[in-house]
Amino acid sequence: MSPKYRGQHLAEKMLKIAEDNAIKNGMLKFKLEVRKSNITAIGFYGNFGYCVTEEVTPDSYLMEKVL
User: Fold this and answer.
1) Domains present along the chain, CATH in parentheses
2) With a threshold of 0.90, does the pTM exceed it?
3) Residue 1 pLDDT greater than 80, yes or no
């Protein structure tokens, strides 16, 4: 992310919008794939209720959240 946008909680806002849209469309779970090496992203999603549910590839995890 460009330094001028850091600290504005944009990632949190975008995630919330995506989750809200999923709920509006009748989805019960939100799933995403994240690289195992991206510890920052894994922690970020974990803070919002996402859990690692499986290894998708040798390099990535599937994370899910019940909506």
Assistant:
1) 8-66 (3.40.630.30)
2) no
3) no
